[in-house]
Every structure is written in C-alpha cells, then in structure tokens.
Design brief:
It is built from 33 helices and 27 strands. By secondary structure, it is an alpha/beta fold. It has an 8-stranded mixed β-sheet with strand order 1-10-11-9-8-2-5-4, with helices on both faces.
C-alpha cells in the first residue's frame, strides 16, 4: 500500500526526463504481475504506488527510453545496497577483538557487487534512498557511509527474522536515527573505565595470589560487569522488585563480587588450597557453605538488595552446577513465581513489571545444549512466559578446547534465537560504550514488547577453559593474537587518552589503587589454624520425621467441596461423556460408595486451596490427565471456552494454576523447580506423561531437586507425579525408573512413595502442602497409577479421608490372619500388591500363614513401623520382597539392606520378581501377562520360590 500522498508526490518528483519512461514501463509490468520485477523495484511501487505523472496528460509522456534504463537501474541497485547493509551489515561488522575474523569483509555490502561506484552514489539524492535522512546527508554515498557506521561498527544488529512489523520498525528507527549508541559524558566515561579497572584488577589479583587455581575468569569479557550494572540501574529506576540471573562459570566470581557485592574476603576464603595460607573470611562476612556439604566457589549464587528508591530491587544469582545451561529454566521459574499474585482463586494474576530474567550463556553451550531451545520455547507460552528475558552470550570464541567449526553448524552462536524471532545484537567486548548501549536497547525492547532479547558479547578468554589449561596447544594462532592484544581496560584507556579525557598517570593511579585495596583486604584476613573445616550438620527438622502433620478433613467440608466441584458457569456446555464421568463423583462420599483416584485427587487439591495454599500443576496432558482421569479443565462444546471446577469453589483465596506444558521435560521441570524455590508457600506439582519420560530431565533431578539443599541450602517442596506400573505396554510405558530416585535418596533429601489408594494419595499430598515453607520441606517423588486409576480397589470410603493420616506402611486390605500362624511376611510396593489382592480374592486357598504389607513410602524407609509389625509375628521364617520390576530395577537394591537388618536368627530374606534385565519391560503383551502371573503365583505359593538374598 502506498504511503500518504505528500510522501509519494515528493518521491516521484525526483524523476525527470528519460527516467520517467523507464519507470512507466516497469509500472506496466508491475500491474501485470509484480513477480516479474526484481525485489527492489517491486518494493518501490509497493511503497510509493503509481508514478503521479501518469495522472497528467499523455502529451507530457513522450520520453526517450534509451538512457532511462541505466539510470533507474543505478537507483534500484543503490536501494538494494541500502537494504543489504541493513540485513547483512553484521557480516562486515567490527565485532571480533581478536581472531581470524577480526578484519572480515563481505561482498554483500560492497557497492561493487551492485555495479555501483562512488560517483554513481553521489548522483543519487539522499532522500531517494533514505526518506528520513538528516540534513547533513546529501547524497547516496553519504547514506551508504552513514549506514555502514550504524551497521558495520563495533555494534551490529540482526532483526530481519522478526516478523512483527512494529518491532522491526522500532529497531530500525532507533538505529537509523543515530540513537542506538549512548552518548556518555566525560565523567561517565571515566567511571566506566574505573569499573573495568576494578574487574580487571580483581581477576589479576586472583591470578597472582592463587596460582593455578580454577576461577573461570572474565578476562576478555570484562564489559559484562558494566552491562549488568546498567540492567540494575534501569530496573531500580523502574522499581522492578526482582532481577533473576543465571550464568555458568565464566566470569561468575567477578559478577558475584562486583554486581552482587559478595565480599572480596569471602571469595578469597573459598580458595582454600592456597599454597601460602589457609584463609578464613574476616569477622562479619558471610559463612563459607550455603548447604551442609557446600559447593565449589564458581557454582554458588547470591542475593543483593538495592535500595535506591522506595521500592527495593533484589538481585538473585541462581546457584548453578557444572551443567551450564540447565539453570536457564530454573531462573525463568524464579521470575514467573515473582510475577504471579496467587492470593485469589482462579489463575494467578501476573504482573511482568515485578521481575524479569537475565541469562548469561556460553557461546558453545547456547547452540550446543538442547535445554536452551526448550527454555526459549517457554518464552511465549501462557503458563510460562515472563514478559521477556535479556540474554547475553559470553562469547569467548572456543568451547573448552573445541573450535567453532567443530562446535556448531551455524555462522553465529546466537543463530538459534532466530527461530524464536528474538532480535540479536552482536557487540565487540573491547568497546564498553557499545556494550552498555546494547543493554539499553535490549532493556527498552523488553519493556515495550515484553519479549526476549539477545546480545552476543564477542570477546575472548585470556587463559584456557580454566586457569589450569594450556590453550596454546589447541588454539596456537588464536592465543598468539590474544597474547599480543591489550586488555579491554587498556583499549578503553587509550581511547580516552586520545580524546584528552584521561592522562596516562590517571589510569595508572586507578590501577594501583585497585591493587593496593585488594592486597590490604587479603592481608587483614585471619588464618584458619586447624586448616580442616568440616561440613555443617543437617538441619534437625530433616531428622525429626514428618508424621506430625494432621491431614484429615471433616466430612461436611469434603461434601461441600465435592458439591462445589460439580458447579458450572451459567450457560456452559459440557462435553456429555466427560460430564457423565464427573457426575459419578457426586455421591462418592456417601455410605457404601468409594471415591476413586480422580475424586480423591480433586478433593485433595480443593481442600488445600481452601486452606489458603496456592497450587501450580503442570505437565504435557495435565488438564485432562494422560489417562483421562482428571478433567480439571473443561471445554465448552459450543465456543471452546475453558473452565476449571477448582476455580469456582467458595471460600477460597488461593490460586489454582493448571497448565498443559509443551512437549519438554528438562525445561519444564527446571521451570517448576525454580517456581517452587521462589514461592515456597505454593504447592508446585509436575506430572510426567509416562513416568520414564522424566528421564529427559535427569540433570534437573540429579543436580537441583535431589541435591540443591545439601549443596546450596536451596529448599523446594515440589511434587513429581510419575505414572508407573507394569501393564504390558512395553519398556517406555511401564517404569518411572524408581530405582534412580532411590539411588539418589539420602539425608532425607526427598520423599519417594508408591501409594495404592485414593485416600493415601489425599493424605500424602495434603502432608506435602502442610510442609510448605517449613524446615521440614522437601520434594516428593510419587509413583502414580495408570490402569489402577479406575480400579475400585484403589478407591477409598469417606472415613479414610476424614480420619487418620498417611500410612508409610499399610496392611494389605481385606486380609485377616492369625499372627501366631504367620511364617512368611510378603512385602511390596505399588500396583503388584493390588494384583496380588485380586488373585487372593479369586483363590480358594487359605492363606492365613502369610502376612502382607504394602510399603507406600519407600524413602524415608519406615523402619520403626516395620519393626513393630515384625514383633507381632513370633513364628516368622522368611521375609519376601515382591516387585514387578526387574531385580536390578525397582526398589529391591534399596530395601534389601533395611530388610536384612531386621532379620532375626533363623529367618531368611528372599526376592520375588523379574530377573535382572537390560530393558525395563518386555514389549509383547502376552509375555508380560505370563511373567506377571508367574511372579504373583510365587508370592502366594507356600513352597520356596524366588531367590534368597545373596548377602544373607
């Protein structure tokens, strides 16, 4: 569509004589088929419409066409060149301080490629190529030179992949108005130099004082610190309450010291293996370990409150393991939790101005680790968006010892972001003004459009991957260049000296003061006389048990909640089949009825909400439930409106945030973990589609959920619902890999359970909610049923909800035995125990010689309860563990030590279950049925069966 008439008239008024005939000829072709024209000519007509002289008399259109073609071709070629500089100027930009690409050129922005020389460009009026050209830009050559200054300098841009026209226009106008680069005062420039001098001085001091120790220095990327300073400055001015940061090792100590204010002496004290003395922080400094086992110094996080306005801004740097980018979704979870208001029923109300995330990536890891893509995909999803994250790639050109040609298939480390339409700035780390200018653009973009923004901070690393590596053996040419290259502080100091802003003595004075101050802090530190600091003790609350929480709910309250779950908005058109399923729950609490799993789960959530505790429940099919048992989000069949029965309950002042997640495990579990840490009073639940799909989140389980409290003192109360059970569905749909969670179970770090009734689930979830925000808090790993969801044997009568509490060890239902006669104790967990119950009901054999117990909580193991049970069995000869998982999987390798410790003289311990296997389950249903039947028969047969424990 053409611009306004005045703009069109001004443009066409530039043409005269021979040019007009050629334009008319091209316009005729445009009217026939625009695709017949080259792109730039077509765009000219798209923008300005028909030449205005066509509306005049035909007598004025008798023009020669011999020379017009060449003239207009020069114009359209110049227009192509201008557009090429916008799109491809980054290919020639001065963004590499060192390396082979430092002085690169691209023919895509070379006038010769377009058949143009300086004289051709001078003959073209500036406004023909750049409508908003400033008055000092007179011709085409001026335009090209100005555009190259904007697009091929030490800061450059990629935004052509952004499909939103408003966003592209905003970026283009900012850049081409000459407003992209900050105009700092001389005083600001000197302060920037001082900041860089502190960063460099700190790193140099560590290098000299703690020789050969790992620190993953920031040297080569020092500008990252003033960049983060700018973010803090803008956020505090905007009264943002939380800046959530995540980064790997590179530069972490400098960020902790300079951005989060971690005391220098605290950092020095963490270099414990110094050859000259064992260091302890001075009085009043922070403690050494965050958790009771601690972590290496370049994994630890910190928080800092900045009180520059009446609203304090808290900066949080997340703890991060060696697994690089896996902190990304955790930080996003932090930010979302800080934005959500969970104080009313329904979905939380989000205020994205309360918090935002800053993620600092490695160049090799950003493109190499799939968790990055998973996290970027969360950015625009309703249940996960945080209104935009600022991403910085700490680009040091090498991934450990791997060169770019072996580490990625893309030109830039940042190219992954293009698929998510994230604007990208590449900036030279040797130009600190360009670096903080990039931050301003990114911050303003996020603020205006509520979307992610990425800055590729291109520098180098002064040493190897860590300070113990020798990079000259693997990157000899690059490090020859680095060795000969002045530091960023020196580069900037030289610039200021050339401009007369600073003299050499001034810079040397700054440098000397930084070094002297650090030396004085180091000298003042105490020596640790014993040199053998010990890990802290586990918090007592984790050792005292968790059976003190009351979880029963009065019957009248449960009935009122159940009735409330039947309510629908006026005019809501329910899907009949689903409505029929939910109607069955209406009388579940009446005498003679049972509440199935779905009913018990809904009542658990409803009662927790009524207690004022918010819930967040997510997973790939969580709204309906993978196995169509939950139905907590209903869809109107006429207009597709959505309604959750838990949003309509009376007397509720807490949110219920239920979301279907993207097809992601690591990203989503990391996000939910972060949410649970930031909002400890929210019950955060993640459900796997099938239990062992959680395998894809193994790093989050290993490094965060299971170990974070011991390493970092970071508490989480989140729940993992992992469907588990052997129904003949094959290897990937049977096992939640229970053994892996048990292998990681220690120091009461989490609860691992496998319950077999709706009331047990009800009490367990309510207990988990009751622990929120307390010292007893810890995650819950729960094996949940699949086929059992509709099995009446897992249903519970009303009394089981209104009395008692969760039972870690539960008697087999409907089994009455004379304990004097019992010679075998059969103990197992989960679905197999229900299969055994069914088999016993169909059997005519008298089984009063056997006691059966269900281990509903595997960890912490209920040793005392089991001891009590064993004391009542005076004639016991054997304890038999039964499971449906292979012997090298499931619970056996975990429980056998506990069971063996309980054996009395003359008693044996045996295993019944599948043999050791490589695959979790067979893939042939008939074979599965045969195996399942055989193990159940062995469990119920009085003759010897199964295997005696080899260690008995």
């Amino acid at each position: 569509m053409a611009l306004n008439e005045e703009s069109s008239e001004r443009f066409w008024g530039q043409f005269n004589g021979p040019n007009m005939g050629y334009v008319e000829e091209q316009y005729d072709l445009y009217k026939e088929d625009p695709e017949k024209l080259d792109t730039s000519t077509r765009e000219m007509f798209d923008k300005y419409g028909a030449p205005d002289w066509l509306h005049q008399s035909s007598s004025n259109q008798s023009l020669s066409k011999k020379t017009s073609k060449n003239d207009v071709k020069k114009l359209t070629s110049a227009m192509k060149l201008v557009e090429a500089i916008r799109r491809y100027g980054h290919l020639e930009a001065d963004i590499y301080p060192v390396g082979l690409q430092k002085d690169r050129k691209s023919e895509l922005v070379d006038p010769k490629k377009y058949g143009l020389n300086d004289e051709d460009l001078k003959n073209i009026p500036a406004e023909w190529l750049w409508e908003k050209a400033p008055s000092n830009i007179e011709n085409g050559l001026d335009v090209i030179n100005e555009f190259k200054k904007y697009y091929t300098g030490t800061i450059t841009y990629e935004y052509d992949h952004v499909n939103n026209n408003e966003e592209r226009k905003w970026l283009l106008e900012l850049i081409e108005a000459g407003e992209a680069r900050l105009d700092l005062s001389d005083e600001d420039k000197q302060q920037l130099l001082e900041r860089l001098a502190h960063v460099e001085g700190f790193e140099e001091f560590l290098q000299k004082t703690f020789v050969g120790q790992k620190r993953f220095s920031i040297e080569g990327l020092e500008a990252m610190v003033p960049m983060l300073d700018q973010i803090v400055k803008y956020a505090t001015a905007d009264k943002i309450e939380n800046i959530m940061m995540g980064m790997a090792h590179r530069g972490r100590l400098s960020v902790l010291a300079h951005v989060l204010g971690k005391p220098y002496d605290k950092i020095f004290s963490e270099f414990h293996h110094s050859p000259d003395k064992e260091l302890m922080p001075s009085e009043g400094s922070m403690g050494i370990n965050h958790g009771w086992t601690g972590d290496v110094k370049y994994h630890l996080g910190a928080t800092k409150d900045v009180n520059e306005t009446e609203t304090a801004t808290r900066i949080t740097l997340a703890h991060n393991p060696s697994h690089l980018e896996f902190v990304n979704p955790v930080v996003e979870g932090f930010a979302r939790a800080a934005q959500d208001d969970r104080s009313e029923k329904g979905y939380p109300v989000r205020d994205e101005s309360k918090a935002f995330g800053v993620l600092i990536h490695g160049d090799a890891a950003f493109i190499g680790e799939g968790i990055v893509a998973e996290t970027l995909n969360l950015s625009g999803l309703p249940g996960y968006t945080t209104g935009g994250t600022l991403h910085i790639i700490a680009n040091n050109l090498v991934g450990y010892t791997t060169n770019q040609k072996d580490g990625r298939s893309t030109r830039y480390a940042s190219d992954l972001a293009k698929g998510f339409e994230i604007p990208i700035i590449h900036v030279n780390a040797d130009d600190p003004i360009a670096c903080i200018s990039a931050i301003r653009i990114g911050y303003e973009y996020r603020k205006k459009f509520h979307k992610d923004f990425l800055i590729d901070l291109v520098g180098y690393r002064r040493y190897g991957h860590n300070e113990m590596d020798e990079p000259r053996s693997t990157q000899p040419k690059l490090y020859q260049d680095i060795d000969n290259h002045p530091t960023a502080v020196n580069v900037f100091a030289n610039v200021l000296e050339e401009k007369g802003i600073l003299n050499k003595e001034g810079y040397q004075g700054i440098k000397d003061k930084v070094g002297n101050d650090l030396h004085e802090i180091y000298k003042s530190m105490k020596e640790n006389e014993n040199g053998q600091p010990e890990a802290e003790a586990i918090p007592k609350a984790l050792l005292n048990g968790i059976d003190q929480f009351e979880t029963a709910v009065p019957l009248d309250q449960l009935k009122a909640l159940n009735k409330g779950l039947m309510k629908r908005p006026e005019g809501f058109n329910s899907f009949r089949k689903v409505d029929k399923i939910l109607k069955r729950r209406e009388n579940a609490l009446e005498d003679g009825n049972k509440a199935d799993w779905g009913t018990g789960e809904s009542l658990a959530y409803a009662s927790i909400l009524q207690d004022g505790i918010p819930i967040r429940l997510t997973g790939q099919d969580t709204e309906r439930g993978t196995f169509a048992h939950r139905h907590l989000v209903l869809h109107d069949t006429e207009n597709n409106n959505e309604y959750s029965p838990l949003h309509g309950l009376d007397e509720v002042n807490a949110s219920f945030d239920i979301r279907n997640s993207p097809l992601s495990e690591a990203g989503v579990v990391g996000f939910e973990y972060g949410y649970s840490v930031q909002s400890p009073n929210t019950l955060v639940i993640w459900e796997a589609q099938f239990g062992d799909f959680a395998n894809a989140a193994q790093v989050i389980f290993d490094q965060f959920i299971s170990a974070a409290r011991a390493k970092w003192g970071e508490k989480s109360n989140m729940v993992l619902l992992l469907p588990h059970g052997y129904e003949g569905q094959g290897p990937e749909h049977s096992s939640a890999r229970l053994e892996r969670f048990l292998q990681m179970a220690a120091e009461n770090n989490w609860i691992v359970a496998n319950v077999t009734s709706s009331a047990q689930f009800f009490h367990l979830i309510r207990r988990q909610a009751a622990m929120r925000g307390r010292e007893e808090a810890r995650p819950l790993v729960l094996m949940t049923p699949k086929s059992l969801l509709r099995n009446q044997r897992v249903g519970s009568v009303a009394e089981e909800f209104t009395n008692g509490k969760f039972l870690p060890l539960r008697a087999q239902p409907n089994l009455n035995v004379n304990k004097e006669n019992v010679t075998r104790l059969l103990i197992g967990s989960g679905k197999v125990m229900v299969d055994i119950e069914e088999e016993m009901d169909h059997s005519e054999e008298k089984m009063d010689w056997m006691q059966i117990l269900r281990l509903e909580q595997i960890y912490p193991f209920p040793k005392k309860q089991l001891e009590t049970e064993l004391k009542d069995l005076p004639n016991l000869k054997e304890i038999v563990w039964v499971q449906e998982e292979p012997k090298n999987m499931g619970s056996w390798d975990f429980v056998d030590d506990y069971l063996r410790d309980l054996l009395q003289e003359g008693q044996t311990l045996r295993y019944i279950g599948r043999p050791n296997r490589a695959s979790p389950a067979v893939g042939v249903p008939n074979v599965h049925k045969t195996e399942q039947s055989q193990l159940i028969q062995k469990a119920l047969n009085p003759s010897k069966g199964g295997e005696t424990s080899e260690r008995n």
